[in-house]
């Protein structure tokens, strides 16, 4: 992960996919795989004293070979560990002209904690893919 002196942009998530990943290709033919990772956190106690949990959905994008690996190996319900950085894009809304923003985690490494692996007999397979193109 490349850093600029005095800054750090690093995100690490461990959670589950809530939907099938979406794989697409840019007009230049670059693979992109998008998925959301659900993580849970404690938010306090309810009136009855029970701890309350909230689920956060974080959008993730993987690019190039990492995108291809994610598209092949992940499915709804997969448990993953994602290491990456935050990226924010902006654009002007065509209908209203208002400036819009979207922040995603750009994955640099994805560990498949129980991914769909057709050749593996068990769903408890652990596999790692990264932007450094670790062979599999």
Automatic annotation (TrEMBL):
Keywords: DNA-binding. InterPro entries: NA-bd_OB-fold, Primosome_PriB/ssb, ssDNA-bd. GO terms for molecular function: single-stranded DNA binding. PROSITE patterns: SSB. One of its GO terms (biological process) is DNA replication. One of its GO terms (cellular component) is nucleoid. Homotetramer. This is Single-stranded DNA-binding protein. It comes from Kouleothrix aurantiaca. The lineage of its organism: Bacteria, Bacillati, Chloroflexota, Chloroflexia, Chloroflexales.
């Amino acid at each position: 992960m490349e850093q600029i002196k005095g800054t750090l942009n690093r995100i690490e998530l461990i959670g589950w996919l809530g939907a099938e990943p979406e794989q697409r290709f840019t007009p230049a033919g670059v693979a992109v795989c998008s998925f959301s990772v659900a993580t849970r956190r404690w938010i306090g106690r309810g009136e009855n004293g029970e701890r309350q949990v909230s689920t956060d959905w974080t959008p993730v994008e993987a690019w190039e070979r990492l995108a291809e690996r994610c598209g092949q190996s992940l499915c709804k319900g997969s448990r993953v560990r994602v290491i990456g950085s935050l990226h924010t894009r902006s654009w002007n809304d065509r209908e209203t002209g208002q400036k819009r923003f979207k922040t995603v985690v750009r994955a640099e490494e994805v560990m498949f904690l129980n991914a769909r692996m057709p050749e593996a007999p068990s769903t408890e397979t652990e596999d790692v893919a990264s932007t450094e193109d670790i062979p599999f």
